[in-house]
Amino acid sequence: MKRSFAKCVAFFLVMAVAFGAAGCGKDKAEQQEENAVVSEENAETEEESSDEGAAAKGQAAENDDEKTTASAVKKDSLQEAFVTADGAPDVVASSAILIEASTGTILYEKNPDQKMYPASMTKMLTALVALDYYEPEELIQVGTEINEVSLDSSKAGHQVGETLTMKNAIRGLIIPSGNDSANVVAAAVARRAENDESLGFAKCEAVFTELMNEKAEKLGATNSHFANAHGYHSEDHYTSAHDMALIARAFMENETLAEIANEKSFSGNGADNMFESNENMKTQEYVWRSHNLLITDGEYNYPYATGIKTGFTDEAGDCVTAAAEKDDVQLIAVIFNSEDPNRWLDAKNLFEYGFNNYQKVEIAKANEAIEEIPLTKHKKSEGDTLAVVFQKDMVAFLPASAANSLKVTVAYNETYAVTDKEGKVSLKAPIEKGAEIGTVSYEVNGKTVLEAPVYAGRDVSKGTIFSSIGYFFKNLFTLKGLLTLVVIIVVIAIIVIIIRIIGNRRYSRRGGGYSFGSGLNMGGRRMPRRRRGGRRRF
Prior knowledge:
There is one protein chain. By secondary structure, the protein is α+β, with helices and mostly antiparallel strands. Helices cover 37% and strands 22% of the residues. It contains twelve helices and 21 strands. The strands form six sheets. Strands 15-18-19-13-12-17-16 form a seven-stranded mixed beta sheet. The protein is elongated. It starts with a helix and ends in a 12-residue tail after the last strand.
């Protein structure tokens, strides 16, 4: 019976060692971890597996929520430059900011959060709200709202009863900076939003300004409040360079608005000649010329300028929100209270600073591996490493001197990370695709300039004995599989030899019998000597 028990133990030992050698057992990092807590894990394996799966699912759900939010509010913030370039220009403006449009990177700022009056730069936000409710080609009609502007306002020249397209109404906003155009747009949008064509202008203005403030907040503005659609001075109508940059960035993302912002002039029919043969439809011809000297032909023209909007009131001073594009890089500059001609010079100097001292560096594309991290406790048929990825493209604007000295380090979350005695890190399964698994840090000359989360590039399943056996047989006839098979055979042979040696020794001891001497006297009697092979009688 003892021999049978020994053989059973040996058999199970052979199987365990064999599958361990075949890669079916635990790898080095996992084994070190489990040796320390073997008794605990025997009691809690199922609970731990359940908790890990729930944690991974919870993290993935959280990431989905973050992605939904980011989609709903696409442009919600600006970010500091990784590293600030030297040689920033002296800017006359009371408040100014320069950003790169695609990333929102701030390349220069001066009093960016200071309360300022936007004047007619307000009309960028008016146009954005208009296109939330109207298509550019839709027709609107001018009403008496054009009379609700101050006599010293800039005007586009609309007439009561006139019909024009929304796009041309926006042209009237941007090119000649018409306050009457702003009221026309505000009235049309408010009546559509409220589904009430009978709304008076006072109610229209209240509805529209509420929409403006909601839009600004959605874009990320935190130091702004708008009280009218045109920017005529009001103490309750204010913003900041930072907030205006957010609005300008959204404005230039709209193809229709970007086209209008770059037009030096407009000549044409307000309704695009849709009613040439209809004498009962009132339209008119317009000739408008831009006030933005950065895009018009003249002394202050900047060859890369693409817009956007000027502004002036006595309280606001001379202002401009300008855009420029060079070599597929778009910059936006916001200039507040810089007396002419300094607003044009400030904008040009900031553009030159941005284009000449920064360069676009593509750090990583969305879902492309930053690095491959080893795995443990995983289903080996799926692979032994996990791609570590970003969920969006990572692009940085860096000074030319810093672009080649960017150092990347990834720190992994304790939820997943396992470190062996040699300090090597691996991640333990299960892990769901999209789970936040760590944080990447970027350093320039020893200074951390940015930290961002990184995510699992795929699902990682937890390994089982059955998946390990399947993996072994699937790879049996590869070079690695054949080498593993040789190891298994050698291990089995050694264990079989040990079993035989142990068995032979036990047999030898039993076959030799026992001897107590030939003449032992007990109680005065001589005990008979037991004969080998004899039969005992009772």
